[in-house]
Amino acid sequence: MAIIQQIQRKTGCLFLVILGSLLLFVISDLLKSDRGGIFGSEGLNVGEIKGEKIAYEDFNTRFTTMLAQMEQNNPGVKVDETIKSQYSEQTWNSFLQDKIFAVEYEKMGVAVSGEELADMTIGDHPDEQVVKAFTAQGGQFDKNRLIKFLQEDIEADETKKASWIQFEEGLVQNTLGKKYAAVIKGACYTTKLEAKAQFKDSRYSLTGSFVGVQYATIPDASIKVNDAELTKELNSVKDKYKQEASRDIEFVSFSIEPTSEDSAATKTWAYENYDKLKTSKYDSVFVNIMNSENPWDGSFKPIGSFDQSIETQLFALDSGGMIGPVYTNGKYSIYKISGTKADSQYIFKASHILITLGGNTPADSMASQQRVNTIMSDLISKKVTFENAAVTNADGSGQAGGDLGLLSKSSTHVSKQFYQRAAMAAEGQLFVVTDETGIHIGKVTSAKSNKLIKVAVLSQSVTAGRNTVRNASQKANTFLSLARNAKDFGKAAESQGLSKRVAYGIKETDISIAGISEPKQMIRWVYDDKTAEGAVSDMMSFNTNYVIAKCVKLKKEGLPTIEEIRSILELAVRNTKKASQLETKFNSALAKSKNMDQLATNVKSIAMLIPEQLFINDNVPGVGYDLKVLGTLFGTKTGAFSKVIKGDNGVYVVWVNNVNKPQEPANFDEQQKMNTDQLKTSVDGGVMDALRKKAAIKDLRYKYF
Q1: How large is the angle between the packed helices 2-11 and 143-152, nearest 10 degrees?
Q2: Which helix (H) or strand (E) is 63 found in, with range?
Q3: Which of 202, 212, 206, 203 is nearest to 610 (CA)?
Q4: Which run of H or of E encompasses 457?
Q5: Which end of the chain, C or N, has fewer beta carbons within 10 A?
């Protein structure tokens, strides 16, 4: 509220949200609440942050508030699963903000004062979002328009006032984040020794050769492995084998998408009701009784209010005229003109070519006018098209050939001068008008209309009919009975002529599963404590299909069992034993070899050249990615065998022929600065990841949202 009070002192008014889009920056705590509610700390929880449980009630309050605010600022928007998922993520981020980042800000003394907040809105340094909201067509921030907006355009409205507060809080959080990042980056530093090491790693190179023998040359069957060895491998390298919780499923889908019969039935419904609507005396009553998906709207609307594919036809009709049935966007619709009348203003389409004023001197004005004259001459002689001449428009309309869309007296995207001049011009006539954004060469591109129409719309979407749903349900139930008693889910599907699908590695936090339109229901089932490995689900109902699934693999978080990764452990143990055999072979060969060719002959391999190798390049030609080989290579003296290297895929010995050392600079200041700058660019993500990891976050939203 601090900023509102300050602006009130300057402008004497209440406030409205600047633009609905600005609310997307809101990640702060919308509703602070310590209430236990009906769930309380012992009730339902959607997660845990730093040991503190996030109650379902608190999360849902924020979530529904954010969603409601979005709907208020975007009338008519369809709230689907994608939008809900986005706002669930924003809500979750707001809790992370409270529990993690707000605490860090306080520790480091990062804050935003009331004076700063005022400066970011009405002061000398407005935030980029405020600038964006009040930038005129000419590309300049219009401070006077902002003041006018605050002084004259705002009414006392608590809802709008709350929206402004939300924007204000979002602006604060955004600024706090920037300040925090600046503090972290300011603490980044690279020492002279690090800079020198980086210089060597990226510029020193060497040439040499290697001799290697792959583990694959020894048959697996010759290496015996037992469970005790697998257990030892698993426990000795725990970090390597730790896993996230995941699930693997098999599933079969039964479509309930509308069929051609369903489409035909809806079309028949539309034709049957055409005459009924035509003869109806009370259109509003008929539309509402028939439960039209487009409810009755008794207002008179201007051109530009309807689907472009039918709008021209609608405005050509008189009262009582009808169009339909029309199929668009998956539904059949019938339109009836319930009334017409003339408006006091005309609506029409127009385009423009914008010539911005280079400055305020007479010479600037003359130059701009000369350019206008040249363009007008080229247009009249057809040397250039209107669309091509408009490409450079500073307001961005050039991408559409200068098209400004529909204009009316209340249009805000053009000046009053432009509208008034265009209103007097005939269709296709060129005209010139000057306003605060520059000089416009305009053209009216459509007929002018002041006609208003009231339209009754009777519509119904094509949906799966009873037979379609019943047939899919029967097939699903038949398969369910079979699957629950079958040992092999896939063979059971084949016996019914069905295709089995699979989904591996499903995480609790996944937001999509290939082949599943609404994954949350599936994730809730597969992560339910009662769902064991081998369990078959009940028939799950989705918007477009039924699904029956089987949990074929259940992996818990942490160290896996031997059986879960037996093949991986066996490979590791076999390679360890193979490495020991090959190490003995190499040591014996080294004792009687004086160069790499002799060594290669003695181990029955070949010597491979290393033409040029940088330490910063972790891929060794002929070897691939193997840090053990790379590290040993740069730690080996020139003209000598290295020690035997037990690599990732084989055993190697390397030889260095020559080390190329470029001239070192007098100092490493430039390298030091470059290293520090690189560190600063990567530190943000690292710090955030560290804070999140330390917070021991548990995200259980999938159970409820």
Answers
A1: 90
A2: helix 56-73
A3: 206
A4: strand 449-461
A5: N
Q: What is the mean pLDDT of each run of 10 residues along the chain (705 residues)?
A: 39 33 33 35 77 91 86 73 84 88 87 87 82 66 74 64 72 86 88 91 94 96 95 93 94 93 93 93 92 90 87 92 92 95 90 83 82 92 93 87 89 88 93 90 92 94 91 95 93 94 91 84 91 95 92 92 93 97 96 96 96 93 95 95 96 96 88 88 80 85 81
How far is CA 179 from each of CA 105, 174, 185, 388, 649, rounded to the nearest angstrom?
Answer: 9, 9, 10, 45, 47
pLDDT 10s digits, 301-313: 888 888 888 988 9
Question: Which residues in 575-598 are b (16+ Cβ under 10 Å) and which e?
Answer: bebbbeebeebbeebbeebeebee
List the chain domain ranges. Answer: 2-186, 205-239+564-660, 246-257+466-555, 258-463
324 and 333 in contact (C-beta within 8 Å)?
yes
d(CA 210, CA 653): 6
List, in order, residues 6 or more apart from 249 with CB less than 8 Å away: 502, 503, 506, 522, 526, 549, 550, 551, 552
- DSSP track, 614-631: ETT--EETTTEE-HHHHH
Please choose, from the candidates 515, 521, 543, 641, the residue with its C-alpha nearest in 3D space to the C-alpha of residue 211.
641
Q: 659 has which bridge partners?
A: 206
Torsion of CA 636, 642, 647, 652, to 10 degrees: 130
246-257+466-555: CATH topology is Chitinase A; domain 3 (3.10.50)
Domain 246-257+466-555 matches domain 258-463 at the CATH topology level: yes
What pLDDT score does 69 carry? 78
pTM listed for this prediction:
0.58
Fold of 258-463: Chitinase A; domain 3 (3.10.50)
169 close to 65: Cβ distance less than 8 angstroms = no
In 3-state terms the chain splits into helix, strand, coil percentages (rounded to 5) of: 45, 20, 35
Farthest-apart Cα atoms in the chain, separation: 109
Q: Which two tokens stand for residue 167?
A: 């924007």
- β-partners of residue 248 are 553
Tokens read off for 653: 């010995």
The pair of three-digit structure tokens given for residue 217, joined into one six-digit string = 């040359």
The model's pLDDT over 646-666, given as tens digits with 9 standing for 90+, comes to 999 999 999 999 999 888 888
Bridge pairing between strands 45-49 and 624-625: unpaired
